[in-house]
Amino acid sequence: MKPFSKNQLERYPLYLRYFKELQEQGFQLAPSPAIASRLGISEELVRKDLQAVCKEKGRPRKGRDVASTIAALERFLGYGKPEHAILIGVGNLGGALLHFGGFADSGLCFDAAFDASYQVSGKQIAGKNVYPMSALPSYIKAKKVRLAVITVPSEAAQSVATLLVENGIVGIWNFAPVTLKVPKSVVVENVDLSSSLAVLFHHMKEQGGPNHW
Amino acid sequence: MKPFSKNQLERYPLYLRYFKELQEQGFQLAPSPAIASRLGISEELVRKDLQAVCKEKGRPRKGRDVASTIAALERFLGYGKPEHAILIGVGNLGGALLHFGGFADSGLCFDAAFDASYQVSGKQIAGKNVYPMSALPSYIKAKKVRLAVITVPSEAAQSVATLLVENGIVGIWNFAPVTLKVPKSVVVENVDLSSSLAVLFHHMKEQGGPNHW
Question: Fewest Cβ atoms nearer than 10 Å: which of A166, A175, A176, B199?
Fold first, then answer.
């Protein structure tokens, strides 16, 4: 089977959200044209995406069964069994992520946070304990944590990543605007807001024409 | 010329960051193999990307001039003239974005924030005034704002987007996990953390093998 592309993987939570919306509204079948229009992509792409994760085929002209597609998407996305994670760096962004209650629905569950500053370590934020960095290695080993979220300042990100990997972390969700160097066996997913802004500004420029810039 | 792909646009801030790093370290020329290795992409892609935005060609076997490439990237990304923006929804995430000082370097500058709650409107957050939603239409018109950042809860996002568009906003940076319906002339860039997590989990699953899940 063809490996999943990044763009394709990013669409599955959007499908899931739309199917759940349809379910709440009482729909039992989801026609491809409706799905395609909602996500702003072609019907062909919708069919390919959903066939790759759901065994059941859609019924021609009627659509896909909403309930079984939701179950298949949740299974594929691993939402039944949330991944436990630690967060490193409790600044503004780190604190906001801890406070944000919605990650459990996306398969992530925060166990604890770590921070280099004595001002926050020892406290609780959004009900999660914040520990000093010195407690990190033993925590990862004791709790068998596999995933870490990095929200430290840029200049600290690489050394934190190295420490995490040395202690057994295999997945990093990186919010620091730095390209981390890690072994190939470690998965890094970057959330880079400046990249997102670059896309936005470019398209605004195209729409607005040169006179507006 | 070929239009820029989303992935390509997302790479330009990464190039800029690496070139600035090289400049700080005293390098005057950046060889393509070094750039390719740092960004984890092919040399061919590096050359295509940079040729699309810099008139000056790289010197064979020596590399690209660091200073002029930085200037070209900043011009392309519009960083010389930051776009003024308003932020709607001062919850945890909205507050974190206002506190985060780094957006000016990425071409975005917050003018003010708006919130439906009486508890926050009328206050200042990170030095920015927070106004009630009723002040939104006149503010957009008076200040000629083109860009808005949406950090309201999902259920409020569509009505906020509609209000923004009606009042002249042409670019939306959307952090609400909702596919917004807007006219084609309005640019929406979504920051969807559940999509990012879906990519991360899928690759962790591939690495770890089925026994680990």
Answer: A166
